[in-house]
Amino acid sequence: MNNRVHNFSAGPSILPDQVFEKASSAVKNFNNSGLSILEISHRSKDFMNVLEESRSLALEIAGLNSEEYSCLYLQGGASLQFLMTAYNFLNNNAAYINTGSWSSKAIKEAKLFGKVAEIASSKDKNFNYIPKEYDLNGSYDYLHITSNNTIFGTQFHSFPESSCPLFADMSSDIFSREIDFSKFDLIYAGAQKNLGPAGVTMVLIKNNLLDKITRNVPSMLSYKIHIDKDSSFNTPPVFAIYCVLLNLRLIKKEGLESIGENNLTKSKLIYDEIDNNKCFSGFSDYDDRSQMNATFNLNNGYDGELFNKICKENNISGINGHRSVGGYRASIYNALSTDSINLLIKCMKEFESNYN
C-alpha cells in the first residue's frame, strides 16, 4: 500500500496537483514580488491581472460573449446565491424544479421575496430521478434548476426549454462537460467542487438581466453593484480566486469536450461495478445518474464495517454518503484520476469476494 490518498469527497474536493504546486509557491512568493499571495493588496496590479484573467477565462470556456455576460467572484457560497437570485429578480412569481436538498433550500429562500411555483419535484421517490414533465405556461420571472445533485446523485442531461430567464445552480458540475451555456441567463457555482477551494463563488450573469431588478437591494446582495465594482465591492477572497485561475488555465488547455468524455468514462466504470456487484445497489434512476456523484447503498446482509476497513486500508477517503441519506458516494470530479476509480472498484470486488 502506498501513501497516496484517493479523495472521493463531495467537497471541498480534489484539485489538480498543478494547482497545489503553483499555489504553494505563490504562498511564499507571488510573481517574484517578495510578497505572499495571502498578503498582496486586492487593489494591486498583480491581483487585478489575476481577477481579469480568471473572469475572461471563465467566459471563454463557457463560450459566452463578454459583451453580453459578466463573470463575478463573490462570497457566501451557493447558499447566499439562493437568496441573492430571488432578492434581485423575484418580483412576482418564479418557477423552481425541486430535485433535492439544495433546490429545496433555494425554494425556501425564494419564498421570502415572492410567490414560488414548484412546477416539478422528484420528492415522491426521495429525489432519485430528474422530473421530465412540467408546465411552463405560466408567467414567471425566471426558472431555477439545480443541474447536479450531490446528495442523491442525479443530474440534468438535457435542460428545460424556457421562455423566461433560466437560472442554474451548477456548483457541482460546472465545466465538467460541454453544454450550451448560452441557454442560461444566470449560473452560479460554489468553487469547492470543480473550480477551486472553498471561499469563492463564480457567477455568470447576462447583463440585460439587470434591467429586471425593480426593488432596492442591499449593496452586498446587489448584482449591479458587484458588476460595477468588478467583484471588489469588498475585499475579495484573493487566494481562492488565484487557485480558480490556475484551474481554469488547465480546463481551457484540456477543453470541455475532452473533460466531459473522460468524466463519462470514469462514471461508467464505477456504475458498471455497482450494477454488477451483488453487494451494492445504485440509488439514482439509471437515466438520470450523475457523472459527478455516484451514489450507492450496501445491500442487506453485507458488512459495512468490512467494506469501510477495505477502503481505509487502500487510502480511499470521502466515500461515505451525505449524512442525511447514508450509504456511499463516489464523487468523480475533473481532477479525480481513473487510477482512483479503478482502486475503488478493486475494493468493491475484494469486498464481494468475501461472500463467494
Task: Give a quick precis of the structure.
With 356 residues, the chain is α/β, with parallel strands linked by helices.
Description of the structure:
35% of the residues lie in helices and 17% in strands. It is α/β, with parallel strands linked by helices and 356 residues long. The chain has two domains: 17-254, Aspartate Aminotransferase, domain 2 (3-Layer(aba) Sandwich); 256-353, Alpha-Beta Complex (Aspartate Aminotransferase, domain 1). The strands form four sheets. Strands 2-10-9-8-5-3-4 form a seven-stranded mixed sheet, with helices on both faces. Strand 6 and strand 7 form a beta hairpin. It is globular. The protein starts with 5 loop residues before the first strand and ends with a helix. The model has no long low-confidence stretch (mean pLDDT 96).
Task: Describe this protein with a few key phrases.
356 residues, alpha/beta, Aspartate Aminotransferase, domain 2, 2 domains, 17% strand
Mean pLDDT across all residues, rounded? 96
At the third CATH level, what is the topology name of the largest domain?
Answer: Aspartate Aminotransferase, domain 2
Q: Helices and strands, in N-to-C order? A: EHHEHEHEEEEEEEHHHEEHEEH
Helix-residue proportion: 25-40%
* Rg (CA only): 21 Å
Biggest sheet: strands, sense, closure? 7 strands, mixed
| CATH homologous superfamily title of the largest domain | Type I PLP-dependent aspartate aminotransferase-like (Major domain)
Note the quaternary state here. single chain
